[in-house]
Amino acid sequence: MKTGLLRIALPRLGEIRPDALAVFGWRAGAGAWQDGGPAPLREIAARFGAMRVEVCLHPEDASLTDVSLPPLPEKRRRAAILAEVEALALGEVEGLAVGFGARNDDGAAPVAWTEQDRLDGALARLRAMGLNVRAVYAAPFFLPLPDAGSCGVLVDGWAVLRTGRDAGLMHAVHAAPFPEAGAGGPPDDGNDAPPAALPVLSEPIQWLDAGLRQAAGPTALSSPSDAPSRWAGPCAAWSIPVGGRQRGGGRQNWTRAAGACALAAAVWVAGLNLYAYRLAHHGQAIQAHMRDRVKAAFPDLPVVVNPLQQARQQRDAWSALGDDPDGARFSRTIRASAAVIDNLAGQVQSMRYAGGELVLTLRGGKPASADEAAALAQRASEAGLAATADASGWTLRLDPQAMPPALAARNTPGATAKEAG
């Protein structure tokens, strides 16, 4: 039989099996609620292939209370409630299925929790019977909402009260005479006050005569007229989550925080690497510029590896030779002409240095061609020399244009005499 909605008050989670008795109610479409009475879960599943199945937990399987909360955004409210539940449950919330409602005007939010593993196991057994549970509620939330006060029912030594659409309470009591349905309190048994075991609220309680379940299973409802009303209450706006571990718990919050820290560290390392790369690139550019400047200032250096050190060495060398300008010109001319002489290997017959000029006499006295002369002059210019070709060979001298001004003045023939004058 197809029903629009089936509601079952479950036995204890550990007792759920095909032959376990449960009370239930159902309605077809928008019709009136019908009470099914106690029946084995196997028969309920066989008779009602419900399009939607809702269950409420036995009072012993779930805790229900209110927690005080400050005004919080939605994304932080869950973490605050889980922290409160962790303190109330005296343990971590990772093993709990926790449901909660909205914060009311008094700053309190309803919250219920049960053991996740036991709930998952019970729901799996119900699915195996053909009952696919879509929503799980705490015990009070199938009860109707009276116009004033609260609505209550007795279940296995528990007074289960619905005090609002999203609020309720469960109170352990001793076996006591059942109050009559519709009364504001327990029946008149010769005492003016209700039994001490029953909860007493400031507002009247409408007790439904549901009775206590016996050890063999739930008893029949003694008043058929009140039986359907047990299932007719509007759904609460919240429920205990079905299927899966809690999300957003304390440990996961730490996981998220650790993940955020790791991401921030990765971004910082990436930024640091980028900054280091830019510094290295800038340093390489400065190094290249220094090499070019040193090469331009001291063209006789064959290779510039450490620009600053080599520049200092050249400066110190020229300073040491400051009192001997002719010796300095000779040393510089010989070093600079080494690259030019390499191109004339096997052709030089003799070399003679005088007056700041190195005269190279070639074998055979054959003058160089125009191309050869241009190539050698270019090579000499790169070495800081001026090259002049004649009929017998070449004359090499330091080129003042290729030297720093101070060195050019020192290495210009006749400069010493002018300075002395």
Automatic annotation (TrEMBL):
SUPFAM superfamilies, sorted: Actin-like ATPase domain (SSF53067)
Domain GspL cytoplasmic actin-ATPase-like per the UniProt entry, residue ranges: 39-168
rRNA-binding listed as a keyword: no
Cross-referenced InterPro entries: ATPase_NBD (IPR043129), GspL_cyto_dom (IPR024230), GspL_pp_dom (IPR025691), T2SS_protein-GspL (IPR007812)
Any one Gene Ontology BP term: protein secretion by the type II secretion system
GO cellular component terms attached to this protein's record: Gram-negative-bacterium-type cell wall; plasma membrane; type II protein secretion system complex
Listed Pfam families: GspL_C, T2SSL
Subcellular location: Cell inner membrane
Main subcellular location: membrane
Domain GspL periplasmic: 252-380
Ranges that cross the membrane: none
Membrane topology, as annotated: Single-pass membrane protein
Keywords: Cell inner membrane, Cell membrane, Membrane, Protein transport, Transmembrane, Transmembrane helix, Transport
Family that this chain belongs to: Belongs to the GSP L family.
NCBIfam families: typeII_sec_gspL
Name the UniProt record assigns to this protein: General secretion pathway protein L
Organism: Pollutimonas bauzanensis
Phylogenetic lineage: Bacteria, Pseudomonadati, Pseudomonadota, Betaproteobacteria, Burkholderiales
